[in-house]
Amino acid sequence: MARILLVLRCMQRPKASTVSLVIGLSALGTTLTQAAELAPQADSGDTAWLLSATALVLFMTMPGLALFYGGLVRARNVLSVMAHCAGIACVASLLWAAGLYSLAFKGGGGWIGNLDALFLRGVTADSLAPGTAVPESLFLMFQMTFAIITPGLYVGAVVERMKFGAVLMFSALWLVLVYTPVTHWVWGGGWMQAMGVKDLAGGIVVHTTAGVSALVLAVMLGRRRGFPDHPHPPHNPGMVFVGAAMLWVGWFGFNAGSQLKAGSGAGMTLLVTHLSACAAALVWCLLERLRNGKAGLVGLVTGLVAGLATVTPASGDVGPMGAIVIGALAAVVCYFSVSLIRERLKIDDSLDVFAVHGVGGILGTLLLAFFGQNALGGLGLVKPVFSQLGIQLLGVGVTIVWSAAFSVGIGLLVKAVTGLRVDEEQEFEGMDRSEHGENAYPMEP
């Protein structure tokens, strides 16, 4: 500042020499250069990792989730599932840029943020996300991919019978009323974060919200034709495997990317994510073999996804052995949840979204309180087991009630405006033709 004032004084003197002016300008240039060097700069390593992680999370939805769900439905409905995933991705992206990012991550309100970044106002090429060394534009894009995949998850509960327009309208309102507030509570400085709720990558924010809403939608829509007396087997288990493999790889960006930096934390998170998935897949296979005499490919990858969903909230706090136990428990609990919902309660959650994602996310959020402790190989939670467990339970409980209540309200509103379900003839014909005028296959196998 002293050098800047010196230059200004030289310029104001009528007889200032050229030499003194040059010296002053040189000093000013040096000062400005030093100031630029002292300004916060994006870390190239952290930025490069988050760029990769962002691409991986988007890859989970398109094409990962689209192929995974597409292979699980009948051939006459595969394109409708893909259209749902693509349509939600577009709607979520535009809403996130318009104001949801701001409501989720701007301001320190306990329940919701503010609109300081409405239409991304103030987000420049040089601005950094608070508390990080990555560009804010990249941080908001990374979070956008989470806003894309979360409503994409509950599509699995409504396949083969929910209207395309109803899916898009429900998703838009759901993102505003459910996803964005919960994101702010847990990650954006809201009341859950202040209370000490731990959720690295979305056990509460992603899997609990989407899983509960999936169950609500399944009940509101009613069962598919023939359920539960006539099975609806996957039309293409190979496609299911390819989609699940993409989800597995993408999940490394989902969990390890949530560390927001390329360091030891991201490395450990990646490792525990992988180990939990492996343990869950094998235990699920064992359960199928003991119960049915065979271990199917679809069951193996379903267990894999259950392990990934369950370790997600805990992946920043548990060690390798804890992750293996979490994966094994995830397979057992989610496997029998599928049977309970499908066979006992006879709720047609078509692709077992609540049993795998909802139950898995809740389970992992609670197990974190145990396996995050040093004594069980964790990375050292500050609070003792039952203190942390109580906090986790409160966070999960409020999220379940919030998600269920608003999903019912949004569902009733959409039903009044557009209707939720295609008619019986359209359902029989298949939604690929009735909703989109296209067929994935000339003849359904």
What portion of residues is helical?
A: over 70%
> Unreliable segments (pLDDT under 50, ≥5 consecutive)?
1-8, 18-25, 31-37
- The CATH class, by name, is Mainly Alpha
Tell me the CATH topology.
Ammonium transporter fold
Mean pLDDT: 91
**Relative strand content:** under 5%
Number of alpha- plus pi-helical segments: 16
**Element pattern in H and E:** HHHHHHHHHHHHHHHH
CATH architecture: Orthogonal Bundle
Structural class: mainly alpha
Total beta strand runs: 0
Largest sheet: none
Give descriptors for this structure.
445 residues; Ammonium transporter fold
Task: Give structural notes.
- This protein has 445 residues and is an all-alpha fold.
- It has one domain: Orthogonal Bundle (Ammonium transporter fold).
- It has helices spanning 2-12, 18-38, 44-72, 78-105, 136-158, 164-187, 191-195, 203-221, 237-256, 264-292, 297-311, 320-344, 353-371, 385-417, 424-429, 431-436.
- The protein is globular and about 60 Å long.
- The N and C termini lie far apart (77 Å).
Draw up the topology in text:
Layout: H1 2-12, H2 18-38, H3 44-72, H4 78-105, H5 136-158, H6 164-187, H7 191-195, H8 203-221, H9 237-256, H10 264-292, H11 297-311, H12 320-344, H13 353-371, H14 385-417, H15 424-429, H16 431-436
Q: How would you summarize this macromolecular structure in one to three sentences?
A:
The chain is mainly alpha-helical and 445 residues long.
